[in-house]
Write a structure and sequence with these properties.
The chain has 474 residues and is mainly alpha-helical. Helices cover 74% and strands 1% of the residues. It is built from 19 helices and 2 strands. Strands 1-2 form a two-stranded antiparallel sheet. Strand 1 and strand 2 form a beta hairpin. Helix 5 packs antiparallel against helix 15, helix 8 runs parallel beside helix 18 and helix 10 packs across helix 16. The longest helix is centred in the N-terminal third of the chain and has 45 residues. The radius of gyration is 26 Å and the shape is globular.
């Protein structure tokens, strides 16, 4: 009885002291330790010129982590990266497409015909698997080859930890752990990596929040989709000399919306099914260092660009086969793809999308990287079936961004379709790799299903709302 009484008294005293010291006790303690260390250093360290040396790191940090300048600088840097990517990827993309799609594909078809290859085998391997891989390379390689090296240089310079530092206070305010900002930054590269990175969070509750919300960080596979659609539909609404800036601003806006969604969902979870208090932590910022340009470029091209591209190609091969099969297997005189698209098109239009996009996202569940190539192939096939654009097979001339735009517009796409696709690209289920990683990290089917279907539900609601407002105001 005495032990129980003493325990209750200790808990009561701890609760009273907790309210006396306030929620910022850990932050205040860390700040006081650093302040004392600085005072000791000022007394113990002497300089030859009797003056403290200029500290470049702290000078930069006062600017990039400033409450007033930190976020505007972050947005401007992101916009600059996207602008360079958008402006620089058009010509090489068209060049690759002219070789792989407009030259090699007809040559392969001619060779297959010359050796009397069966129609179905030629279609599956050349019109399906090869064409999907060719469009993956043509559409995705140029923007990735520009975006990832620049992003890696910022990371190597030491700026990305400052982004996490700026986001720390926001995540703590919504009841999540400040380290979730670090997992969010990892998610911008790969959501599966971001999920694994949540291990740095000790609290199981806060770790689970970080895992569930990591999908709101745009991963490698979704950046090319955002950049391409923003270029075709958002940039086209502005004068030519401003198109790149407007497109970059649209992509930044979607990325910021993802961060906002992460904060909102974290706030909701921390006050309902995962209710609790946020833990405190101290983040030590690494020093700035000159980027190792050649090494960083090599690493980003091998570890990110080629890795992501290879993963996209691997998944594009079977996806291309599926696309050809659903377009050429007929039921009751209509192709399977045509039946599904016609059946889902009214629902797709209701949320600002279309049946082609819905089918593409089903086929592209294994990897986000193949969404756009799948959309393009399905759009061409549907246009061919309906006689739009004069197609009789699977081919459009894909030699530039303008040609890609013509494919989508021929499929009935509008500005609303582009906007809703950008939103749905942000708010939809994780790829199969991330879903499996979530299950391995949580060991729970329930939380895996929540992590998978919560973004889809949010995406459908957001797209429906945007579409209805568009229809109402148009």
């Amino acid at each position: 009885m005495n032990d129980k009484k003493n325990t209750n008294e200790i808990l009561k005293l701890a609760d009273e002291l907790r309210w006396e010291i306030g929620n910022d006790f850990h932050d205040a303690l860390a700040e006081s330790i650093h302040a004392d260390a600085a005072q000791i250093a000022a007394v113990a360290v002497s300089y030859d010129d009797k003056k403290p040396q200029f500290d470049m790191d702290r000078t930069i940090d006062r600017i990039v982590t400033s409450p007033w300048l930190g976020f505007p600088i972050m947005f401007l840097l992101l916009a600059g990266v996207f602008w360079v990517t958008i402006e620089g990827s058009n010509i090489p993309s068209g060049y690759l497409a002219s070789i792989l799609v407009d030259t090699v594909h007809p040559a392969l078809k001619a060779f297959a015909d010359s050796i009397n290859t069966p129609f179905w085998l030629s279609g599956v391997l050349i019109d399906g698997a090869y064409l999907a891989m060719a469009w993956v390379i043509a559409v995705m390689l140029p923007p990735m080859a520009i975006f990832f090296p620049i992003f890696s240089l910022l990371e190597d310079f030491g700026y990305l930890p400052r982004v996490a530092f700026n986001m720390d206070n926001l995540y703590r305010r919504v009841g999540a752990h400040g380290k979730q900002a670090l997992t969010m930054s990892m998610g911008f590269g790969c959501n599966a990596a971001g999920v694994v990175a949540a291990r740095i969070i000790d609290s199981p509750r806060e770790r689970l929040i970080a895992i569930i919300t990591n999908n709101f960080s745009l991963c490698n596979g979704r950046w090319p989709t955002q950049i391409l659609i923003a270029t075709i539909f958002i940039g086209a609404t502005a004068p030519a000399h401003l198109a790149g800036i407007v497109s970059a601003g649209a992509v930044v806006g979607v990325a910021v919306l993802g961060i906002f969604s992460s904060l909102v969902v974290s706030w909701f979870l921390s006050r309902t099914v995962l209710k609790g208090e946020a833990s405190a932590f101290s983040l030590e910022l690494p020093p700035y260092r000159p980027p190792r340009i050649l090494q960083t470029l090599y690493t980003s091209l091998i570890d990110r660009t080629l890795f992501v591209l290879w993963r996209a190609i691997v998944f594009a091969f079977p996806a291309g086969i599926v696309i050809w099969l659903v377009a050429n297997i007929h039921i009751g005189g209509a192709a399977v793809a045509e039946i599904f698209i016609d059946w889902t098109n009214p629902f797709g239009i209701l949320i600002g999308l279309n049946g082609v996009i819905l089918l593409a996202y089903i086929i592209a569940i294994p990897a986000n990287e193949i969404v756009i190539p799948t959309v393009l192939m399905l759009t061409v096939l549907v246009s061919s079936i309906s006689g739009v654009g004069g197609g009789s097979g699977v081919m459009f001339e894909l030699d530039s961004i303008e040609a890609t735009s013509s494919i989508l517009h021929a499929g009935g796409w509008t500005l609303l379709t582009g906007i809703c696709l950008m939103l749905f690209s942000l708010l939809h289920n994780p790829c199969s790799t991330t879903i499996y990683t979530i299950y391995k990290e949580t060991g729970s089917v329930k939380w895996t299903l929540i992590s998978t279907f919560l973004p889809i539900a949010m995406g459908l609601v957001v797209c429906f709302t945007v579409a209805q407002l568009w229809y109402l105001l148009a």
